[in-house]
Each structure stands twice: as C-alpha cells, then as structure tokens.
Amino acid sequence: MMVFLEELMAFLGRFHPILVHFPIGILVIAFVMAFLEFFKKENPYRPAIRLSLFLGSTAAVFAALSGFLLSRNGGYEIEVLNYHQWLGIVVAGCSILLYLLYREKSRELRWSRKIVRFRFGVFSLLVILLGITGHYGGTLTHGKGYFIEAMPQAMKKTFAVEESNEEILIVENVQQAFVYEGIIQPILKQRCQSCHGDRKKEGELALHTKESLLKGGENGKVLLANKSKESELYKRLILPAGDKKRMPPKGRTPISPDQIKLIAWWIDQGASFDKKVGQLTQSKEIAAILKKLETGQQDAPKVLYADFPKAPDLPKGKMDAWQAKGIKIIPVAKENNLVQVNAINYPQFNDKDLQDLLAIKENIVQLKLGHTAITDQALATIKSMPFVSRLHLENTKVSDNGLLQLKGLQKLVYLNLVGTKVTVNGLANLKDVPNLKNVYIYQAAGGNNVDLKVLQAKIHVDTGNYRLPFIATDTIKF
Fold first, then answer.
1. Which CATH number is associated with domain 316-462?
2. pLDDT tier, 469 (very low <50, low <70, confident <90, very high otherwise)
3. pLDDT at residue 397 in the model
4. Are 85 and 13 within 8 A, CB to CB?
5. Which of the residues 9, 47, 66, 475 has the least number of beta carbons within 10 Å of its own beta carbon?
6. Which of 178-187, 428-437, 455-464 has the highest mean pLDDT?
7. Mean pLDDT rounded to a whole number for the chain
8. What was the pLDDT predicted at 371?
9. Pick from 1, 2, 61, 57: nearest CA to 30
C-alpha cells in the first residue's frame, strides 16, 4: 500500500506544470477587473472578481500541492526550490485571503473590517509575488540566468544587469584526469543539461549519465565512437549560427570553440568513459587546449579593430551631406572614429561618390557597396583607403582587372564578389592581398581548378553550389 501511495504522489506531482499556469491566468484577470473597479464608484465587476478569486485560489492550492509532490523526486537546486516553494504557498494563502475580503459580507466580519480597505494593495502584492514565483520556477526548469542571458545588451546596460559569472572548469594535472568524468561531462553539464538532463529531456535526450548519452534520444543515437562528423552530439554544435537545430539554441550561452574541439577529439579517440587524458593521442592543438584547463585560462574575446590606429575626427558638414543622399555612415568601434559606409539606400552610388569619401579614408574599415553603380575604377580609389577590412562588392560591374587594385590593402580580410563579372581565373589577382581570409564568388564563370586549389590553400574561397548534409533527423531532403 505504501509503495502505491508513493507512486501515486509521484504521478500527481507530474501535473504541476499543467496546474501552475491556471491560477496565474485567472488571478491576473481578476486583478485587471479589480484595478478597473478601484477607479470607479460603481462595482460592475465585483461578482466576476469573486468568482475569479474563488477559482484562482482553489487552483493555486492544487498547484502548490502538486509542486510539493513533484519536489519530492529530487534533482532540483535546493535554494531555488525553497524560494519557489514558499512563494507558491504565500501566493495560495494571499489568493484565499483576497477571496474572503471580496465577499459581500467582508465588511461585516470583525476580523476583516479593518483590512478590507487595503485589499487592492494586497492584490497588487499578489501579482508581484506571482511574477517572482514564476521566475524561480523558470530558473528550476531552465537553469540560472535563463531570463537574463537573452536580454538585449542595451537593456542590460540600462538596468545595470550584471552578467552571471560561470564557474570556470579547472582540472589539476589534466593528463591524469579521466577524459569523460573530468572534462566532457562538466562541459555537457554547463552547456547542455538544462534542456537534456535528469529533469528535462527535450527530444527524449538526456546527457547527464553515460547510459543516457549512449541511449540517445527519440531520433536515435547521438554518439558514434571514432566518428565525430557522423555524431549528432557534435554535428549540432557546429551548425551555422541562427540554424534552428544548432545547439545550444539561440538565446543560450554558446559552447566555446575549444569545448567543441575537445568533444570532437574525445569522440574521434573512441568516446571512452574510463580512459585518462594521457592515454589518448593528442595533436598539438588539443594538447594546448588541455594545458589551459589546468589554470582555467580562457581565450580573451577579440576586440574588433583594437589594433587599428586612432582615426581622425569626422567632418560633420560632409557627414550630413552624405547622410542626406542616403549614404549611411555608421560607427563600428567605441572610443574611435572608425566607421562603416553603407550605400544600401543609394543605388546610384558611383565611382565619383567614392572618390568624395577619400575625405574620411582613414576612418573607413567597412565598405558596403553592393547593388551600386561602381566599376573597376572604384577599386583604384579603395586602394587609397588603408584600413578597409570588409568589402562588399556584390552585384556590381567589378571585373577581374579591378582586383589588381586591391593588392596593397593590408587590412582586408573579407571580400564579397557575388554576382559580379569576376571569374575564377581573376581570383589569382588576390594572392598578394596579405591578410585576406574569405572570398565569396557564387556562380563564377570559367577558371582553372588547379589555380583555385592553390589559392584556397591560403584563402577560403566560397564558390557556392554546395549541398547541405542530410541529417538523420531532417524531415525534408533538399
């Protein structure tokens, strides 16, 4: 009989996520009606308020009871659970009190006569408590920082919200540490288990134990030993930013490049659960990443344009004239006058307009000239802008000959040539651009594949026409 009661209580506790939203909605509606009544002499909402409070207080009691039963299963952070639990009890108590205060006889009873005039204040307090209780409930489900970490940076600055400092993984004598227990599992706990753990199993996938990791989720296994590129656990980490299947999802703190490399290394080394770091083969890159774990060293985020010299002041008169034409001049760095020039709203932008921008040649670091009327002559002008690092020339009349002019751009790292007259052969003119990293040139005409391969050894040339890999969980194959 006792076993049955334990199982029954565990079962009833699972209704908490369903029951908890019912009192919130009803009590908020009741508050809106009480708010409207507060500013009117007549009381048209009083019967509806009483009914809503009766239903809301009853639902709050059941939600609190089911929450208590659910908490008995364990697996929750005690401090957060206690806040959520006691606040839930207070909400249930306040809603019952309010129901009694809004009854017709509330002014006749001795105990309520003195406090009935403060009932709207009590109602306001109840709504605030509902929000706080819900916040702690969300923290229990999604982990600390779930709400704040997705807040826009401008709002964080306005409300002086401090970023939560995550615990940094430090592994003493890393070569003697067990790879899974000491490195991989802590990474999964930090980045994945709020959605794929013992409490929450999205897609029926849990990553908190060896057994659950090997079992996989509703779409099958996520871990294939020695095959990181075929393992869903790894493939979902390297999808492009913004992809719906990328993990962790948008709005959550992303996993670091070093952590991704460690997971891939562990899988390719056999995904062992009982071997030590020193027993596995390590490349120089992996050895360096592992060494950093001993001190907790983390790669400092790169500050964009931090190595650029301080730019001169911008000429206000000319700035206003350019802005009036539709040429957007946008600051890109703090405490510097570096700018991006964007001609998106001025498709008539031509070679002469670009020459006029030489007045701020030492300020320009990005040029977005796509879909404008510029020609190869414009590239001769750009050659005189020493700090251009990103150059958008898509869908313009630029050709192979114009690329010769870019040879002297020491800072250029990105070049978009999509939809231009540039051919694969013309890309050979870029081999002397010292720091160029990425070139985009979809549907390029002609070209020598051998020359392209030589160039790609130095520069990533994206020519398009690629196929997206088919993932087992995809429903549509393109």
1. 3.80.10.10
2. low
3. 92
4. no
5. 475
6. 178-187
7. 82
8. 93
9. 57
pLDDT at 442 over 60: yes
Q: Please give the Cα distance from 283 to 453 (Å, whole number).
A: 25
pTM for this predicted structure: 0.46
Of 284-293, 300-309, 330-339, 347-356, the poorest mean pLDDT is in 300-309
* Residues β-bridged to residue 367: 341, 391
Res 137 pLDDT > 60: yes
Query: Domain map of the chain by residue range?
Result: 2-158, 174-293, 316-462
Task: Evaluate whether 416 touches 440 at the Cβ level (below 8 Å).
Answer: yes
Q: 270-285 b/e with 16+ CB inside 10 Å = b?
A: ebbeeeebeebebeee
Q: Which amino acid is at 38?
A: F
What is the pLDDT at residue 450?
45
Cα dihedral value 455, 460, 465, 467, nearest 10: 130
